Amino acid sequence: MEYQPIGVFDSGFGGLTVLREIEQALPQYDFLYLGDNARAPYGTRSFETVYAYTLEAVEWLFNRGCCLIILACNTASAKALRTIQQKDLPLIAPDRRVLGVIRPVTELIGTITKSRHVGVLATAGTVASQSYVIEIAKQFPDITVVQEACPMWVPLLENNELEGAGADYFVKQHIDRILAADSRIDTLVLGCTHYTLFEPKIRRYITDDISLISQGTIVAKSLEDYLRRHPEIAERCTRQGKRDFYTSETTDFFERLAPLFYGRQIRCRQRTGDFPH
Ligand code: DGL
Known about the structure:
The protein is α/β, with parallel strands linked by helices. Helix content is 47%, strand content 16%.
């Protein structure tokens, strides 16, 4: 059988936090990870740019055999997923699927919040897209959503500053702001796949009655459900427990920082030249 891994895509390292959880749930499947580190962060880029970069990544992963791709990036899910699903897939790969990370979280939110006031911490791009606000309103119109863009959080992580004093400063700044904007928030969504690393720090600045929602385990569960409901896709995904990692940056850079997000060392390859910079 032709090698058909499940593709996992992020602008950089954040998707590794999602892949880590998906692997726990579905260890037998093959996974091919692509981080577009050379062009990260996506969070400050325009719709057009994020869409163009994400579509390139999707096509690249299709060309390497993936018939199912997870956009393990909120910014790409917010700005590119719908267009890719509705406009591009029917033309370029009608029998393949691309899924995002926002919907699995918004579907659950109504069962978590009691106060019906939810805060979303995300990149500037995800906040501007209003994707969380729109998706939650569709499913739970009684919930009030307050968003806060945290533009420093991804650069802090990607510069290995998680433990520095700067990280504490910017975590506190955004938590204080979102809770000041709505003091009834009882649920905070970490709407960027990088942010789960800040969880211990965020907990220092919130009370115990506030739930903190990270996406990894939720996306993993949702993918398990998806594969169960779509045997025609599941059957095509190969299962030899293989992992392949690609980056658009140098392999040194990726291999140095990846363990922070993935929890262990990896070997990666540089994406080949059919992918413009
Ligand atoms: N990890 C991405 C997300 O979930 C964003 C990081 C970036 O700005 O590139 O939104």
